Amino acid sequence: xxxxxxxxxxxxxxxxxxxxxxxxxxxxxxxxxxxxxxxxxxxxxxxxxxxxxxxxxxxxxxxxxxxxxxxxxxxxxxxxxxxxxxxxxxxxxxxxxxxxxxxxxxxxxxxxxxxxxxxxxxxxxxxxxxxxxxxxxxxxxxxxxxxxxxxxxxxxxxxxxxxxxxxxxxxxxxxxxxxxxxxxxxxxxxxxxxxxxxxxxxxxxxxxxxxxxxxxxxxxxxxxxxxxxxxxxxxxxxxxxxxxxxxxxxxxxxxxxxxxxxxxxxxxxxxxxxxxxxxxxxxxxxxxxxxxxxxxxxxxxxxxxxxxxxxxxxxxxxxxxxxxxxxxxxxxxxxxxxxxxxxxxxxxxxxxxxxxxxxxxxxxxxxxxxxxxxxxxxxxxxxxxxxxxxxxxxxxxxxxxxxxxxxxxxxxxxxxxxxxxxxxxxxxxxxxxxxxxxxxxxxxxxxxxxx
Length: 451
Ligand code: SF4
Description:
Number of strands: 20
Distance between the termini: 80 Å
Bound molecules: iron/sulfur cluster
Strand order of the largest sheet: 2-1-3-4-5
CATH architecture of the largest domain: Alpha-Beta Horseshoe
CATH topology of the largest domain: pyruvate-formate lyase- activating enzyme
Largest sheet: 5 strands, parallel
Number of domains: 3
CATH class of the largest domain: Alpha Beta
Number of helices: 12
Strand content: 15-25%
Structural class: alpha/beta
């Protein structure tokens, strides 16, 4: 008796096989998608712009919040309906039973960062071309972001165990990339025309902890695999370098002088999540927040144009009105320039589900509105203070108004922060960095023209 494979026979398209990609979730997931796209192109696959033109669709999912899981399951369903041949990867892939139950027709499921497993699944269901043209792939890899900025992922996973977060369960403990690899990738990106590097990870300030800050040599100089050396190395590349997901560990203070010198963009994305000691304890957040306010005020004295972005959760189990007031005072006093605010969600498998004193939805809603009001005022004050100044602006692209371009100052990361609308700017192109006179502002955005 012979055994037949249960998997459907691989498709053998006449031309280069085409794979469609749906990338959901955070910038870290986007970087995973870019790596997969790079591998696919290196092996001679083409990337299809839509479901219809694809021989197979890869869905890179997000499983962080319940709403993201629903979105991921919806995207898988849409891909199955429109195309039929679907491979699932990413964070939700760590829970194959959830996907199989909702969509039994998916061809294969792999978890986050399982690049080899994804490629194996693609090979199984879509035969790779015989002669891959390695030269189809630029040295800097293939990217899903516009040409002038790029995400640079420095590590995978996380050693912390914040009670509301399931990322360590999905992605495992911290694994840092060797610093010379990261710096070389940064250099290749810059050579390929990137003007702004966005450093991402789950916990950027913990970089290198898992490898005991192993020293490596890059361009003849020794760099330790740690946050400060990373900032120095990337700072030497001469482009805007933005640090995301930095926790306020004491050693972050050492990076501030690099900002003062202009080596690193004066921008810190620090996901504080809260300011009340009681709530932070229940959240099991890393890094002590004592004296955080004092340190921020000192950072601002050292680097007056420093912009701080953060995210916060309101309505965490046990959050009292007093805790919430502490949070609002913190936003006002620390002048958190850009803030995302989320109402606590009872994420499946998160430890915080079992905490006592869950907050009613209407209280979360009310606190969220109060938070946004305070934040809008802080943001509007910052925006108003920019009127009459001249700022460096990186151009992202045209707006809907003829002659007007949209760009960002150093205080704003792409996708998540504010923008600058520049009049009389049709001669500019994406990636140009120009001096602009700021003439007006609203709560978040700025308006001006090239100086
Ligand atoms: S630091 Fe906390 S919130 Fe961030 S990924 Fe790690 S466990 Fe999750």
